[in-house]
Amino acid sequence: MYILGLNISPHDASAALLRDGALICLIEQERISRRKHAVFESPADAARACLAEAGITLDSVDTIAFGWNIADTPLSGSRRFTPDGVRRWLFPDRKVTSTMPALEWVPHHLAHAASCYYTCGEDDVAILVVDGAGETQATTLAHGSRGNIEILQEWPISQSLGFYYGLASQWAGLHLHFGPGKLMGLAGYGRPQAPIGLERRPDGYWITAADDSVSHHATGADRSKAIRLEIPAAFERSVTTAFARHYPFVPRHGEDALSYADFAATVQHELEEAAFGLALHARKRIASSTLALAGGVAMNCSMVGKLIQSRIYDRIYVTPVATDAGVSLGAALVAAARHRPFAPTHIDHPYWQSAITARSATAAVAPTGLHCRALPEPDLARCAAAAIADGRIVMWARGRAEIGQRALGARSVLADPRDRRTWERLNTIKGREMWRPLAPSVLAEHIREIFESPVDDPARFMLAAASIRPAMRRVIPAVTHVDGSARPQLVDRATNPLYWSLIEHFRQLTGIPTVVNTSFNLAVEPIVHTAEDAVATFVQSGADLLVLDNLMIAKSESELDTVIAAEDAR
Predict the structure, then answer these.
(1) Rounded distance, CA 48 to CA 43, Å?
(2) What is the mean pLDDT of residues 421-439?
(3) Which residues form the Carbamoyltransferase domain (predicted)?
(4) Residues 534, 548: contact at Cβ < 8 Å?
(5) pLDDT score of 215 more than 60
(6) What's the whole-model pTM score?
(7) Would you name the residues annotated as active-site residues?
(8) What percent of the chain has pLDDT over 90?
(9) Do the beta carbons of residue 526 and residue 36 sit within 8 Å?
(10) First-to-last CA distance in the chain?
(11) Domains in the chain with CATH codes
């Protein structure tokens, strides 16, 4: 039985394909269209890519599951979501007379919940979904047990923590949808001040300033519009009536972003307090010792790190596709769970998108004039590690791509963490704001040498921040944020053996069991997907080397000869 899951949100369109409940692939539309977050795009290309990965056509698909219940949205009457409308929109090449698979519409937060529950590898789990908005809700508490998901409590869109944080990002001049990650980084430069947006209720939930002014009888769309007006107005009231520590008092229009550091720190602190309240509330209602998180807010690694340190739960699991890109998987899992036996895939690695092969790598390099050498895998890891130790920046693209927003050793840019100038150079190459931090990939066996606070399970997908040991902060300054923290990826040998080997060779050369790892993309671009994407980005960048499948690639023959000769000399 094949089930195709689709996300048709206004952003992060994606497709996921299951065979008898097991995940075959998950493809994010942005990787194919090359438009970040695939805003207002259909997942048509991603769906076709999934079918191609499995070597099947749409005729083999039993069900198409969508991560939204359209009947509960203002789009309920749209012809686009009839079987014929879906065919024309997503599969325009399919003949009009062809039979479409069954269509299933899964509530958005149920799809989010399924994406983390069925993939966490445990049966009895407390589930929290926290994002901008589902059909009518912004936060959901659920219980996953015996293969079923029970929704226990929902909070309305007027109490949206996701909208609160996104609108704060916009207020600081960082963008509503693309700025939350930047706001989280900016928060490290500031200190929390007077509360400016959230208020604790007696039941422990923190509500936004919009809650009292937004009608609970309004439609989800109307509530969203009202919140987008009311929360920024609450920010303006707070920063002008509190005290001067919320300088510069007004929405950002060209000022230095660092002027908003205290504002960012305050918003981050309030979000973390809200997360504590939700986690404690969930612990009281559900006896499980494991908490699974999904929704865009779950991507806030500083918040996740604080939850881990609180030890409210023994284990916290965050799916690598906690954003709306993950509801394609969740919707497919909800549909698959109706059929027994059902054995969903435990996601213990992130490599579920399309692969770069030796053939595609050779074809991509051939017309460019770049210089390359095919190397055996052991030599490839050693040469790359030596080049990084010598101060070179290495772009690394091998195998199947990661799902989610984090580069995790399949589509990464790697560099030496010992030199603070690495941080400046990488941010320049990628066109990022200079104050934004970089992250480390760390050998699992050595994680405690680097970090003094726990990172636990979410570190497999670079989804939890932790405090670097004070003695190590001067040793690895390129990945040490201004507050002494970092967002590590824990690399184990079984999950990605060649990437582990590269870092191990770097450790043998330098004594440091970690490298800088940032995503393989330039500003406002998605992470590279194909061999052609990788080559094009490398040519445009100021990076020194590209590892593409089994090829070591340089922009000059002398550079390539130098790197290989240096390793041979060792």
Answers:
(1) 9
(2) 94
(3) 3-66, 99-333
(4) yes
(5) no
(6) 0.93
(7) 11
(8) 76
(9) yes
(10) 53
(11) 2-114+326-347 (3.30.420.40), 157-318 (3.30.420.40), 354-569 (3.90.870.20)
